[in-house]
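Recall that a protein's primary structure is simply its ordered list of amino acids. Everything else, from secondary elements to tertiary packing, is in principle encoded there. The following example makes that idea concrete.
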Amino acid sequence: MSIPWQRYADDHVRTVDTMTSALLFAAFLFGSEISVPGTDRPESVGLTILLAAVSCGALFWQRSHPRTVVTVTALGAAATAALGHLLTPLVLAPVMLALFRLAISTDRSTTRIFFLATLAAVVTPAFLVDPNDHPWPLKTLGPAAWLLLPVATGTTVRIRGAYLEAVQARAEYAERSREEEARHRVAEERMRIARELHDVVAHHLALANAQAGTAAHLARTHPEQVQKILTDLAGTTSSALREMKATVGLLRQRDDPDAPLAPTPGLGQLAELTDAFKSTGLTVQVITEGASRPLTPGVDLTAYRIVQEALTNVTKHAAAEAAHVHLHYGDDQLTITVTDDGTSTTPTVPAPGHGFGLIGMRERARSVGGALQAGHRLEGGYEVTTRLPLYPTAP
């Protein structure tokens, strides 16, 4: 956060530079009158005023041409030392300000080179041409310390500014990353809901189509069985509507009073799922091996949807009379195998890796850390095998 004088300096650059040059001009002239006791002050007043005017006037271009300004002010300080003036901070003030501006606007190596060159340019005339023969510490250690001070200060200011810019850049990057992550999560949620809708619609429409076809066939030969099939068809369509409402309801707001309260489908509804296929002429046998255990919601829903999609594919493509669902609970994974009896002479089951149903099942298995394989069996028929991890559930 900037304070008022900083804001004023940023808004009135020319005014600040003019005031600074005027103050340093007065300081230069005052510093040129300071001398060591026992020595004479130089009598070249006009030349001293000229050097002060040139050095302080060059400061008007310190922001746009810092290297040139450092060179001009360094030569002015060297000429002042050659006239016999004592190198006080007041005399060195223009070159000190120029070095400070250079340290802020350039890199460290450039600043170091100009500092050493300026120090050599100022100290050499003081040693070689000093008519008053000032003590050597005042001609070496003093100027070195005063010239080093703005270099160190300017470098610190530049490093701090770079650090603040880096912090701001990281904050902006983190904000963009959070937005991208949010968009990514929204896209994943849309894909998940799309898979849910595909499973619900594909399963129930295939089942309803098979039931309607069976009813149309039996209407001519066994009309007494048509009523039961039509009742099952009504139940299938009603179940489809309920599941679609529950799935689309995920898009509602949390405080929506019409949000669905029905539980997510899982292997607990496997019996209802297999009974729904009986009216299509497909007999489904479920075999469970190992000790069944509670599954996490994600794995439970994935297992149910894979079995649902696999049985739907049997009804749509295989024209089979029987299917088998084998559940094997191992130590750390659940293996689900769905097979059909392969009674169709011209099976139309898509080849492994093709078809949106198989793609959806594979994506579901991968989403919970599992894997899925599908293909024709040597003894006939088709087989879908899924391995899902068994994660520990909360009590």
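Residues 4-139 form one domain. DSSP finds twelve helices and five strands in the chain.
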